[in-house]
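Spend some time on this chain, tokens included, and walk me through the fold:

. . .
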Amino acid sequence: MKITTINKLCCPFDKADLALQIFAQDLEQNILEGLLTCKTCERYYPIVKGIPIMSPDEYREFKLEQPLIDNWKNHLQGKKTENFRLTNSET
């Protein structure tokens, strides 16, 4: 995914802007792995092999996304995942 693509994407639920965290890029600076997070509802959408996965909650499977989240634990700054949302660890 090209970094300029973020300007064309919004949260499919509330149409809010998305924050981007980049975890891996290729030599041309294309995003290979990362996380898009809605600034309003805090839903997260993983970027896997350059493709943002932005399916509705009912079509997502947490057990398939869990290995990604586990690998990215260091990037999440202590946040936890719950119902496809990022939450603070105290919550």
